Amino acid sequence: xSRIPSQAQxxxxxxxxxxxxVAYHLTKxxxxxxxxxxxxxxxxxxxxxxxxxxxATSVNPADLRKFRYxxxxxxxxxxxxxxxxxxxxxxxxxFSYHEESMAGxxxxxxxGRSADIRLExxxxxxxxxxxxxxxxxxxxxxxxxxxxxxxxxAGFTEALLRLARRHGAKVFENARVTSxxxxxxxxxxxxxxxxxxxxxxxxxxxxxxxxEIAAMVDLSLPIVANEHFYVxxxxxxxxxxxxxxxxxxxELFYGREEVGGLLLGVFDQNAKTMNLSDxxxxxxxxxxxxxxxxxxPYVDRIVERLPIFSSAEIKTFINGPEAFTPxxxxxLGEANQTKGFYTLAGMNSGGIAGSLMAGRQIAELITQGAPxxxxxxxxxxxxxxxEGSEEWLRLTGPDxxxxxxxxxxxxxxxxxxxxxxxxxxxxxxxxxANFQPVCGWEVATSFGNPDNDQTSSEVSLLCSAxxxxxxxxxxxxxxxxxxxxxxxxxxxxxxxxxNGSTAKRLTLMNSRGGVESIPTALPLGSDDWLxxxxxxxxxxxxxxxxxxxxxxxISDETSGWxxxxxxxxxxxxxxCALKGFDKLAETHRGYIGVVPVTIAPVDxxxxxxxxxxxxxxxxxxVLQHGKSGLAQFTPVGSSAVEQLRVAKGIVRWxxxxxxxxxxxxxxxxxxxxxxxxxxxxxxxxxxxxxIHAPVWSDNVCIGNVxxxxxxxxxxxxxxxxxxxxxLDKDVWIDTGAGMVRVEVT
Length: 745
Known about the structure:
eight-stranded mixed sheet
């Protein structure tokens, strides 16, 4: 007789720290019919060899909330379970020998002030006082988080599972999942070697094996398994006791004291990507072969920064598998094509620290339909389809271990270049375009010498004249079929009668008041719409439409259309110069020369689309003939358009608004809802405000900056911010280097 039940409401796959947290939080919210399946032993995958550190050193407010939640929850878990999780407060020091890091430290300190978490920027002497093993030569300072701590990963996991069991969950070791059955795109059962479990929901918490589990429902997760290592030395004579944990910003290593010696780990820039099929089937509490050749390139730098390491003797080399994602954030959410199949995986060597908040998030999502936390940054649908392919992961995998380690660099998402090219890429290249990767696309951000401030020049051009912008990288989702228009109308916050025949920037909302998408909608026919969105927004829009417009045909036509924007104050003059299109009152399909085009006037600017085979001819025609109506008409990059977007106070999905929190535009009187406001600096800033910078009023942090740009004229900065709190007469942004006064526009 099988020990595994034949029926359960929820099956959690994986009994490491993440799976244990999910089971704990589900039972905490009242769900009790839960089965946890572990392929080998509890915590035997990556959990057992985790460094298991908790720290608040981050520039993202969500990470501070994660730290704060874990602090309070761990105490509750110990009290209720009767088990110790081995919590030990050791503090955390991030130090640097690089000037660019110090500005980042000051910004993180500002976030600490906003959340009432101690994050102190230290001088070199203060840094050395707490971490005397550092070399003083060239040290610029540190960021000190005295409340950082570590736990015992095994004890932590067992305490969570004890509480989950107490409230009804059943946990089975040596219960390998062999297949998952779905019917009509919905989960039906999980199969093991001992039998099947009929269920409604499956939660994939399988760590480095999560990609293999997802493949059972034809889901390609963008998770790569890399070798990740640290070493532990024998006791070192003269090593001070009670050293804090530490991390070298820009140096790719971290460490802490460990039984009189040092634990030192490296986030390898050229990590070894694993093929999990090479592991033995009984891989449990296992390690990979020592890889000294991967450590060697970092030894000299570690010795330079930590001279005491030069005389240390290595006792243990810990090399294990770890799951990494392209943007160094975990993956959470329901599969679009298989209802009831959820994933929480890809923890990027932060599984212990992230497990409690992530477990709460997915439990709330499943039991309540929405979490209390914003999930945009970790939502499973944030990735493009190609990012889950074997070839893409093979190309990018070695960079993923180190890509999220740096504080001082704003963009550390791993990208392989020249993967997705606009049909007019060669023309843009010939015109001197500067390219940046966006969702795999090479996007022309500006034109001319990249060492000059080309964006400001292009912003000035758009304010006084007009420019031609290639937006072929935008997502283009087509939705058509009987009733499609009615479905869009139900979701749109506004829908005036003429919307049925003209292009319109729509705001699609859910029942909670969250914004699901902000597409530009072009009618191509009766109940036939083409929705244009930023590339990162396209997967979320596709998911939304598949759920609410089920009677419609939904297709991603991004690759079939070239898209150009005639932007700027004099855009209409350019359009008048284009033969045959001088009187545009509505979306129009016709020809320029021999090129069939669709033209949509939106907010005094014009979107032009054509099939990709006509793109070069159309681009050249528009540029050539547009100049006859406006001599200054030239190519312009995406950065200028983005800067003007912020200056005009136009919100962007995924940055200023998203599906997970309700928001209203403008400084309304109420304090009980999130408001989106536009702020303008009214005095010289000690440093430029950054994304996430805290906003203060009446000595209280009331929100955070979500978008920032220079004003088109003058030296002011324009910020869009999320505000939840009272807006007093005086409002300030904390730049980290000091407060800058702003006014609500």
